[in-house]
Amino acid sequence: MAKQDYYETLGVARNASEADIKKAYRRLAMKHHPDRNPGDKAAEAKFKEIQQAYEVLTDAQKRAAYDQFGHAGVDPSAAGGAGGFYGAGAAGGASFADIFGDVFGDIFGAGRGGRPGGAYRGADLHYSLELSLEDAVKGTEVRIRVPSHETCEECKGSGAKPGTHPTPCRTCGGHGQVRMQQGFFSIQQTCPTCRGSGKAIESPCTVCHGQGRVQRTKTLSVKVPPGVDEGDQIRLAGEGEAGENNGPAGDLYVQVRLKAHPLFKRERDDLYCEVPVSFATAALGGEVEVPTLGGRASIKIPAGTQSEKVFRLRGKGVRNVRHGETGDLYCRVSIETPVHLTDEQKHLVEELEASLRAGGARHSPRSESWFDKIRELFT
Question: Which CATH architecture has domain 265-337?
Fold first, then answer.
C-alpha cells in the first residue's frame, strides 16, 4: 500500500512553518494517541503515521530529502537501511508528556528536563483564579482543588510491584536511547520500548499499573499578596505534575482573573468611577460623598461644574504589589437630569430657562461657542 504524503497526514501545506507543523501534530497526536484509544488498532496505526510525518517534517535535513526524493529519501527499507523506529512501540515513542513537554514546552514556559536514567521533570500546571477587586487589592488566602498526577505511594514511583524491581530494557540496554538508521542518516532516538526510562517492568504495580504516578485531586492553600492585578501569576514550586521515573515535580502557576466590579474600573494602580451629581449641585456647588475601597470620602463640587469633569483623590487607588506605591482614585462627574417632573416643577424649569437665555453667553459659554461655530460653517 502506498504511503500517504506526510504533509497530507498532518493536514498542512508544503510550505508550512515548523510552528504550524508542531501545532497540527499536537492536535492530531492527542486525538489518536493509544493512551486515549486503548485497544483501537486503527487509532494506533494513525498515530504512528502522524509520528512518522512529524519526525521527518521537523528535521531540516530529512524534510529536504523528503521534498526532493519523497519517501525514498527517508524510508530505511527503500534506502537499504538497517530497519527503523516506526514499527516498534504501541505509542510510537511519544507519550502525552512527550507531546506537551518536548514539542510544546515553550507554551508552558518549561521543558521536560530529562535526566540520566530516564527521569523527567513533571509538567507545569496552570490554574485560573477568579478574585473580586476587593480581595485583589487587600490580599487574601484561598483554597483551590487541582487535579494532577502524583508519585504512586505503593511503589514509590518505580512502577514495579512492591518486592520487585525494574530490570534494564533489552532494546536499549538500559540507556534509554537507541541509534537508528533513517535512510541516509544515522540518528539517536528515545528507545521505543521503554520510552527513555531504560527500564522494563516485569511485575507492574497494581495501583499505578506500572506508570509510577496516579491521578489525584489535591487541595492547596494559595496566599494572594495585596495589589495583584489581572494576569499576574503566583508560582507554587513543586505543586505541578509529579515527575516520571522519580524525576522532580513541576510547578503550579496560579493566574489571577478579576471579576467585574459594579462601581470601579481598575487600570494598573488607579481606580476610576462615575459619580452622579444633581443639576442643582453642579450649578450652585456643594459636597458629594463618594465610595472608595477603604471607606467613604467626599469631594467638593465647585459652582458651574460641567459633566465629565474629573476629580482626583490621591492615594485612594491600589497599592502596587511590587514597589508598594499607591495609585489614585479618579471620579468622573455625571450630571443627572431631573425626571418625572410635576407641573409646578416644569413651570419653574421653564422660567429658569427663559432667565438663562436672557443672560446669553454669561450663563452658557459652551453653548454659545458651539452655535458660533455652526454659524461660521454655514456662512
Answer: Sandwich (2.60)
213-224 and 125-131: which strand pairing? Answer: unpaired
Q: How buried is 136 (Cβ within 10 angstroms: 0-12 exposed, 13-18 middle, 19+ buried)?
A: buried
Q: What is the phi/psi pair of residue 310, to 5°?
A: -110, 130
Average pLDDT over every residue of 209-219: 85
Question: Tell me, what amino acid is at 304?
Answer: G
| Residue pLDDT, tens place only, 179-188 | 766 555 667 7
327: alpha, beta or left? (left if phi > 0; alpha if psi -120 to 50) = beta
What sign does the CA torsion over 66, 2, 76, 91 have?
Answer: positive
Torsion of CA 288, 289, 293, 295, to 10 degrees: 150
Determine contact, residues 327/317, Cβ cutoff 8 Å: yes
Q: For residue 110, what pLDDT is reported?
A: 36
What does DSSP say about strands 265-267 and 252-258: parallel, antiparallel, or unpaired? unpaired
% of the chain residues with pLDDT over 70: 80
Q: Is 2.60.260.20 the CATH number for 117-166+201-259?
A: yes
Residue with cell 410635576: 342
**Looking at the domain that runs over 1-111, which CATH code has it been given?**
1.10.287.110
Question: Do the first three CATH levels of 117-166+201-259 and 265-337 match, i.e. the same topology?
Answer: yes
- pLDDT-derived band at 115 (thresholds 50, 70, 90) equals very low
